[in-house]
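User: Could you check the structure of this?
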Amino acid sequence: MNVYAISDLHLSFSSDKPMEIFGDNWEGHFEKIKSDWEKVVKDEDIVLVSGDISWAMKLEEALADLRALVPLRGKKIFVRGNHDYWWNGIGKIRAAAPDDSFVFLQTDAVKIGEFVLIGSRGWSCPNSPDYTERDKKLYLREAERFKLAFLEADKLYKEGDKKIALIHFPPFTQKGEDTLFTELFKANGVEKVVFGHIHGGAYYPLKTQKDGIEYILSSCDKVGFKLVKIY
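Assistant: Sure, the predicted structure tokens are below.
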């Protein structure tokens, strides 16, 4: 069983949202992702998708984008991104999943094989360029949600398992400063963290080592529209 990651798919099969406006490299981006996915992923593998899945505003519209992922192999694990406005009511989303290869995490965890996967959206962190005082409430709330997610993970974890966290926003600053998220990941024995949200010229290293944890940026344009192998 291999574990892969990719995020920020920004699909728009039910709306007219051409990604080429963000750069020529986005032209036909889903076909690029799909081609690589079909080459490397097997049925028993896991693919982690750290948010910004669809441009849809409503769940009914997002289903067209989710169905585009049905033919792609592997167990697909999702967390919400800041543009996933359709993600409203986790019960409804799980009930609408196209098939059992789709797993939606929100303040909780799931175990597949030896991997315990913990997920929540996260938020912009203090000292990040886009952080303002208005973000403080959501930042603190998302940290509390991760605390709840780790309580669920503890129920699933057995000695020898590997903990992987999914978060949409970068969990540390561009200068590598710690946050409530990194402190939680360290305190709870996470081995790897997958995140997205970063595009274009904004700089974060693709891989970062902090306190024995590997942090992996998986925004699709940053990784050349190819899946990143995690394990």
